[in-house]
Amino acid sequence: MPWLWALAIAVTAAGAYWALVVSPTDWQQGETVRIMYVHVPMAWLAMGGYTGLAIVSIMSLIWRHPLADLTARELSPVGAAATALCLATGSLWGKPMWGTWWVWDARLTSVLVLFFLWLGHAALVRAFDDTERGARAGAILALVGIVNIPIVKFSVDWWNTLHQPASVTRLDAPGMHVDMLYPLLTCALGFTLLFAVVVLARTRAAVMERRVRALEMARARRLDAPQ
């Protein structure tokens, strides 16, 4: 964990310096283009993290693995935070570009739905006194909500939206100059490492908490047992 924390912080710091200081401004957007270096990685993490949530939910439902339940439980608050940052930075970017903080187009609305799915999962798994029931309910919600991920991804292609289409993942021609692409990918790697280490740290703490509770319950049973 210490090495992973150090690597995540180092890569994120290098990406932030590259993006905010070294990379050039856009000829149309000016300095506001630098919001991209946070907004785009957060969007990727919001979708990728929810895909990971669906995977551990499948593991929970099929193999009944308690570690999958704990990982899903600790993943949803982090995913919700990343999605909230995506929405917030998108609004900050949209105001100077579109002249408004928010529009109800397909991309923005589907990301908002994704945010509510994250929040719903975080609340649902904590709504039951029986942790197993909460984990099952959360897993079902996560698998139902996975249908929203392709909607988020392809909404700019399926509908006419204000949001620009994909530029980094285009295969036919590069949509971004390398002076902006490389710092963006570095920031994305740094934020991904931070995302992963936070989830791992939360899951590790949850495992230790469960062990402590089990020890306390065993101690209480021994004290209540007849001598």
UniProtKB/TrEMBL annotation:
**Organism field:** Falsiroseomonas bella
Q: Report the domain of life of the source organism.
A: Bacteria
Protein name, as recorded: Heme exporter protein C
Q: Which PANTHER family match?
A: CYTOCHROME B_B6 PROTEIN-RELATED, HEME EXPORTER PROTEIN C
Q: Which family does it belong to?
A: Belongs to the CcmC/CycZ/HelC family.
InterPro entries the record matches: Cyt_c_assembly, Cyt_c_biogenesis_CcmC, Cyt_c_biogenesis_CcsA/CcmC
Q: Does the keyword Nucleotidyltransferase apply?
A: no
Q: Where in the cell is it found?
A: Cell inner membrane; Membrane
Membrane association type: Multi-pass membrane protein
Keyword terms: Cell inner membrane, Cell membrane, Cytochrome c-type biogenesis, Membrane, Transmembrane, Transmembrane helix, Transport
- GO BP terms in the entry: cytochrome complex assembly
- Gene Ontology terms, MF aspect: heme binding; heme transmembrane transporter activity
| Biological role | Required for the export of heme to the periplasm for the biogenesis of c-type cytochromes.
